[in-house]
Amino acid sequence: MSYLPLAVSDGVNDLDINSSATPHKVCNTCQALVIAAQEHLTGDSPHLPLRDSPIIAQYIVPDLQKSGFVEGCHLCSIISQALCPAHSEKDILSSSNRIVTVKISDYGKRASWHGTDTNLAFLDVWLKENDGRRIRNTNVPIVSDSHGFLHSPVPASWSLSTASDATFDLARSWLSECCAQHELCEEVRATPVSSLTSSAYPDYLIGIGEDGRTCRLCATSSLGPTRPAYVALSHRWGASRPFTLTSKSLASLLESIPTTLLPKTFQDALLITHRLGHSYIWIDSLCIMQDSKEHWEKESAIMGDIYRASACTISALGATDGDSGCFKRRNPLCFQQFTFSASSTDTNNPLHKVHVLPEREKVSITRTGSGPAVEPLHQRAWVMQERILSPRTLHYGTFGIYYECVSHHADFRNPSLRTVNSVKYAMHQSCVLPLTSTFAFDETYRSFWKFWTSILTTYNPCGLTYGSDKLVALHGIINLVETRKGLHNIAGLWKEYLLPELLWFRDTPCVARPVGVYQAPTWSWACLNAEVAVGLQDFNYAFDWKAEVLEAAAQGVLANGQISSAYIRIRGPLVKVTWVFDEDGERYRLRWGDVEPEENSADDRVYFLPDVQPATGANNGSEAWALHIVKATAENSYMNMGIVVAKEYEGPHSENRTYVRIGSFKQYDWPSNPTTFCEDGRAQMVTLVVV
After folding, report:
1. How deeply is 31 buried, as exposed, middle or buried, from its count of CB atoms within 10 A (0-12, 13-18, 19+)?
2. d(Cα 119, Cα 117) in Å, to the nearest integer?
3. Heterokaryon incompatibility domain: from which residue to which, for each copy (predicted)?
4. Would you say 97 and 130 are in contact if contact means Cβ atoms under 8 Å apart?
C-alpha cells in the first residue's frame, strides 16, 4: 500500500478537521540519523568520500511511508517526498519490496560555521530494489539557520486539512492585510476591464444566510443602488455536470437553493465565503442561465469585469470537478523543514539550529496546460483571465492554500505576504505604460510584448469544453488591453502589430487541427489547441518588413469576443515552394526552383515549421507558397521569416485566390553566407487573402 501525500477531498464535518501534525518528531531509525548528523557536523566523525561513507539508516518502503504519513515522523515524511515528490507522474514508492538507504556527506569539505556557505551537509538518499539494484537517488540538504530558503511556519502550516480553523485564520489574515494596506490592489479592483463600466455588474449573485448554512439566488437589481461586495469562484466542471440555473429553475432558486443538491466544490466555496466574512458569491453555472444563449452572451461579455470587481476570487485549484471539493487532507510534514540542534567549536555560540530542507512540491500556481505538475484548475483555459483579472485570489490547492494579489504572494509553506512580480502586476503594468509609434520596439512595447506573449503561450495549451469559446475565454484580458492601450484585437492578434504577430510557430507540428466549431482563422494561434512560440523574440536587429497588411477584418463579432470568420488581405513577396523532411535532424526544409542547394549552405537552412503534421515527409505534389514577411539583420547574423500558405479550394475547378496558412518558415545565418531565397527574382509581389 502506498501512503502518498496526495490529499483527498476533506469533508467539513469530519471530527478531526482541526487535527495537526507534530513538527520535529522522529521515529527510532530517524533518531539515529539525527545523532549521526550531529556527530558529522561537529567533526566527531571521520571525513570520508561519499562512496566510502557508511549507511546510517535503512528503511523498507512500507515502513518508511507508514512512519511518515500515519505515525507522523517528520524525517520519514521529508525522505518520502524527496524520493517521490507529490504530483509525480509515477509513484515509485508503490512497491513493497523496495528499500531506502541514507548516508550523510558534505559538499567536498567540512562546512564552516563561521563562513558564508549555509549548506552544511546533505542526506544522500537511495531507493533500491531488494536485490540492491538502484532506482533513484536524491540529496536532501542540511543547512544552517541563516539559509535564505527557511520558512516561518504558523499553526495552519501543520494542519492536516485545508478546512481547519487555523487555515481559515491564515486566509482571513492575508485578505485583511491586503485590503487594509495594499492600495494598488484596491486601485486595480476599481479599474474596470471595459469602457462600459457603469453597468458591468452580474445579473445574479448567491446570497448566503447569516448562519452560513442557507443560500438563495439574488437578482442584483433588487439589492438596491449600493452594490454589495461579493466573492467569485474559479472552478472547473470536469466530467460532472453541476446543479445549474435555468429559466425553469429561476423562480425556485430565487426563493432558496437546496445546498444538498449542490456539488461539493460549491458547498465548500459557500463556506469559505462565509468564513471570510462575505455574504455574496458569484458562481457561473448558478448565476448565468445555462439554457439561454442571450443571457450567456450578455454575461460572458462582462466576465472580465465580474472577476475584476470581486473582493476576492476563490480558486478551486486542486479540484478536478464539482464533486472534488475545495478542501484537501495532506501530510504537512512533507513540505516543512525539520529542525534540530548541533554543537560547534564556536565558543561564543556553541549550539546552532540546523535544518533539513524538504523537496518542494512540483506543482506551481503559475503552470498551465497539462501534465502531473499542473493543478487541475490550471488545465482549463477560462481560468487564465479569471486569475489575471482578479485583484486577489485565494487558491485551494492539492497540498495547501496560496494567496496571490497584484503586489504580493504567500503560501502555506511561507505564510508571510511578500512582494513579487506576479502576472496580475504584469497585467497592470503593461496597461499603464503607453505605447509609442507602431514598430518602434522601444521599452514600452517590449514590456507589453513580453506580457502578451506569456499570455498566449500559456493559454493556448489549456483545455476548453467548447472550441467556440477560444477567444471568449480570453475576452476580458483583450478587452482591458484594448481599453487601456488603445489597441484593436482581431482573432487574438493585435491589429497594429499584425506583421510580427503573424510569425508565431509550433516547435513540433500538431497531429491535427481542431474539428467541429469555428475557433479562429488559420493565421491566428487561436486556431490550434497547443502551445505556440512567438517568432519575434530578439529586438537587437534592424527589421526590413517585406509585407504589408492591407486589410484585416472579422465577421460575426459578438460582444463576448466570439467570431464566425476572419481574413487578412496582405501584399508581399511570394515564392512557390516544396519541402523535404530531414530525418537526421527531424526538421522540414523548404525548397524552391529546380536547383538542389548545397548541403549546409544558407539556402539549405530555410526551415519549414508546419502548424499541423503533413501527411508525408515531402509535400507530395501539393502546392504551397512562402510569403516573406521580414528580413532582420544584425552585425553578425540575419534572419528571414514568414508564413507558408496553400490555396483553399471551394471545389475541384475553383480558381479563387483565397489561402490558408499551413505553417511558418525561418532562416537564420550569418552575413558571409548569403542566400538566394526570395532574392533571386523568383518571388513575385502578390496580394492574397488568407482566412
Report:
1. middle
2. 6
3. 230-386
4. yes
Gap between the terminal Cα atoms of the chain: 56
**Spatial separation of the C-alpha atoms in residues 503 and 505, rounded to whole Å:** 6
State how far the Cα of 15 lies from the Cα of 10, in Å rounded to an integer: 11
pLDDT at 182: 96
Neighbouring residues of 510: CB distance < 8 A, sequence distance ≥ 6: 528, 529, 530, 611, 612, 613
As given in the structure block, the three cell numbers for residue 21 are: 501534525
Q: Which three cell numbers stand for residue 651?
A: 471545389
- Backbone angles phi and psi of 79, in degrees to 5: -65, -45
Instruction: Please list the ranges in the chain whose pLDDT falls under 50.
Output: 1-9, 12-15, 113-115, 651, 653-655
Q: What is the strand order of the sheet 57-60 is part of?
A: 57-60, 99-105, 119-128, 134-144, 351-356, 338-343
Q: Got the DSSP string for 465-519?
A: SSGGGTTGGGHHHHHHHHHHH---EETTEEGGGHHHHTT-B-SS-BSS---SS--
Handedness of CA 411, 413, 414, 420 (dihedral sign): negative
Q: Note the pLDDT tens digit of each residue in 23-33.
A: 999 999 999 99
Judge whether 640 and 667 are in contact, CB under 8 Å. yes
C-alpha cell at 166: 487555523
Nearest by Cα to 78 from 400, 361, 396: 361
What are the angstrom distances between the C-alpha of 408 and each of 183, 262, 402?
A: 12, 33, 11
